[in-house]
Write a structure and sequence with these properties.
Number of domains: 1
Helix content: over 70%
Strand content: under 5%
Structural class: mainly alpha
Length: 205
């Protein structure tokens, strides 16, 4: 029962589009799917870091104000940076040779880093996982079982993000959205910039 509650809460959180969703969508339009999987892996690993903190019961991390404030402003600046890059990107076709620059660089390391920073610089991830393991997981639950919970959630993040990428990377989806891809990228830029501003100046840790 405990696992079902945790898995359900986690999956419902994944269904809510956040910065990662828009980062994945715009990447799927421009990059071969293998580079998008590197992006997904970076996001999943960042979630795994916070899951490890939560599993070990380090709730004190969320109450360490300088760290959380630093994450808040760094995360806000990073999302704003990504948003501005998308807003400044010129209109380009979806041909294979038209996506080499900006945040669409065809580099596993670059895409992995983009995903990792997106996840690790979002203090909401830390709060969410710490809340799950503080409220939903019994203190009597063995560390091994907690670890399995964490592995499950980290894998689900990767699988879900990969499904998002596969959907938007499909030729059929690209053909359908081709006339509006440029505008979807601009919308993604606006949304990422909004998340950045909201995180840095509105949301309180």
């Amino acid at each position: 029962m405990e696992f079902l509650l945790i898995a359900s809460a986690h999956f419902l959180a994944l269904l809510s589009p956040g910065p990662d969703f828009f980062l994945l969508m715009q990447g799927a339009f421009r990059l071969p799917v293998r580079y998008c999987f590197a992006l997904c892996a970076g996001i999943a690993l960042a979630n795994g870091v916070y899951l490890l903190v939560a599993i070990l019961g380090l709730a004190v991390v969320s109450s360490f104000t300088p760290l959380m404030v630093g994450l808040k402003y760094l995360g806000g600046a990073y999302l704003l940076f990504l948003g501005i890059m998308l807003l400044r990107a010129p209109q380009r076709s979806l041909k294979a040779g038209d996506s080499q620059g900006g945040i669409h660089l065809r580099s596993y390391r670059r895409q992995f880093t983009l995903g990792f920073l997106s996840g690790i610089l979002n203090p909401k991830n830390a709060i969410f996982y710490l809340a799950i393991f503080s409220v939903m997981v019994s203190q009597e639950t063995p560390l091994l079982i907690r670890g399995l919970y964490g592995c499950w959630m980290s894998c689900v993040v990767f699988i879900w993000d990969s499904l998002v990428v596969l959907f938007f990377n499909r030729q059929g989806t690209k053909d359908t959205l081709r006339p509006v891809v440029y505008y979807l990228e601009k919308i993604s830029g606006i949304v990422l910039a909004f998340f950045g501003i909201f995180l840095a100046f509105t949301w309180n840790t």
